[in-house]
Amino acid sequence: MIEVEGLVKRYGSTTAVDDLTFEAGPGRVTGFLGPNGAGKSTTMRMILGLDAPTAGLALVGGRPYRSLARPLREVGALLDAHAVHRGRSARAHLASIAASNDIPARRVGEVLEMTGLADVGRRRVGGFSLGMKQRLGIAVALLGDPPVLMFDEPVNGLDPEGILWIRTLMRSLAAEGRTVFVSSHLMSEMALTADHLVIVGGGRLIIDTSTEEFIRGSARGAVLVRTADSAALTRLLTTHGAQVIPEPDGVLAVAGLQPQDIGDLAAANRLTIHELSTRQASLEEAFMDITADSVQYRAGATAGTSRRKDQHQ
Questions:
Q1: Pairing with 111, which of 42, 76, 118, 228 sits 20 to 30 Å away (CA)?
Q2: Domain at 222-285, CATH from 3.30.310, 2.30.29, 1.10.10, 3.30.70
Q3: What gap in Å lies between CA 46 and CA 44, rounded to an integer?
């Protein structure tokens, strides 16, 4: 279990993390999401004892990370794939870390095999691609066979096969009863990987819920209805509390009523329904909606767009 309680981190007058409280439990993948500058990396660093909190607690298994005698046996983490000596081989890098935490040397070969690096284990890390360094960082996280795993942007630099591999790995680790805590900006992957979501913005907690409930509760979800008399159905549904938005192809997007309610109302009023289906919002859409007020960096018009506007003025 990862427990964060009232966590605060200030840098001078800037508050990076502001009274943050949540839990990441065993047996599930918890996605840690938020816009740039939301405080995700700072929170993960405090959980791992790399930064001291201004206030509050960050515990792993009920204890601060710094109190763990052999931390890699308790928590495995990937925060920065570049944090490795370029002149060492992957095998030597893993062997030195294993020795520091009293991990059997045979485990080095096991994690090289697990991460697909067995054939390049004796090559110097300086010649590795970003994707290979990511795999090495994941190998370090797995080295102590820990019950808690933390990953910051684990798919960064991976090819499609690698992305599928890490997704499958994280879900299998959670299925074994481990706590898997992962931060990512790739919403499509989080939708396929995370069982639970902790979303932050401006250093504060925005929502802590299951992925399914979060997407289902998005305002962009709707029931799509096609009928021979759109005007009559719109009047009927709005009188029953629904919000109805006509779409360009003639379909009505209805929020506030379930499909069975719409079907029953239409039948009772002798209105013919040609289509009745549910449109679920994507995780990306739901995320963009809920974090709209927390975005720190917003892009303006592109230079090309600005030039074209100037030319027509």
A1: 42
A2: 3.30.70
A3: 5
> pTM of the predicted model, to two decimals?
0.79
Measure the CA–CA gap between 195 and 30, rounded to whole angstroms. 6
- If we measure between CA atoms, which residue out of 200, 201, 199, 204 comes closest to residue 18? 204
Q: What does CATH list as the number for 2-209?
A: 3.40.50.300
- Per-residue pLDDT of 119-171, as tens digits, reads 999 999 999 998 899 999 999 999 999 999 999 999 888 888 989 999 999 99
Q: Which two tokens stand for residue 198?
A: 């902790």
**Could you give the residue range(s) of every CATH 3.40.50.300 domain in the chain?**
2-209
Q: Where in the chain is the domain with CATH 3.30.70?
A: 222-285
Residue 313 CB coordination number (10 Å): 5
The answer to whether 61 touches 148, Cβ cutoff 8 Å, is yes
pLDDT per residue over 65-114, tens digit each? 999 988 999 999 999 888 888 899 999 999 999 999 999 999 999 999 99
